[in-house]
Specification:
The chain is α+β, with helices and mostly antiparallel strands. It has six helices and eight strands. A six-stranded antiparallel sheet has the order 1-7-8-4-3-5. A two-stranded antiparallel ribbon has the order 2-6.
């Protein structure tokens, strides 16, 4: 399980350090690479390969002619790129994904149990402020789920 939130910089070539605790988990329990794709919130979603294949398996069971499923394929699945860790513990984020998430210098890596999100710091600050503003509603919704 991925836990924590980390602030890093992405370099001009698109190389991003992956936090040591996340790297250790990737190497010990998964593979030293991530499937990285467009997130629906303006960030990038990153999955260890086994978690990604579970998602693909679930999607393959959906009605493939349904408009929303097609849109999911086109936006989410088609943008996915495998990004392997280099010897320094970095991944190379492709230009198309950096552009989508507006990753330029400062980024925030948000661990979300089975996936990791990569946010531009500016977008993350807006997202966090929105979340704090809706804390009561979020708490009530989570209570409905028993959390």
């Amino acid at each position: 399980m991925f836990r924590g939130r980390y602030e890093y910089s992405i370099d001009a070539k698109g190389r991003l350090n992956i936090p040591a605790k996340v790297r250790e988990l990737l190497v010990q329990e998964y593979t030293p690479s991530l499937m990285v794709t467009n997130g629906f919130d303006g960030c990038l979603d990153c999955f260890p390969y086994p978690e990604w294949t579970c998602l693909e398996d679930k999607v393959s069971l959906l009605p493939q002619n349904k408009k929303e499923v097609k849109s999911f394929h086109r936006f989410y699945l088609s943008a996915a790129v495998e990004c392997s860790l280099d010897k320094q513990g970095r991944i190379l984020v492709p230009p198309s994904l950096r552009g989508y998430a507006q990753l330029e210098k400062e980024v925030v890596i948000v661990c979300a149990v089975k996936k990791i999100e990569i946010w531009s710091k500016e977008r993350w600050e807006v997202e966090l402020a929105d979340t704090l503003g809706a804390a009561g509603e979020i708490s009530a919704a989570m209570a409905e789920f028993g959390i």
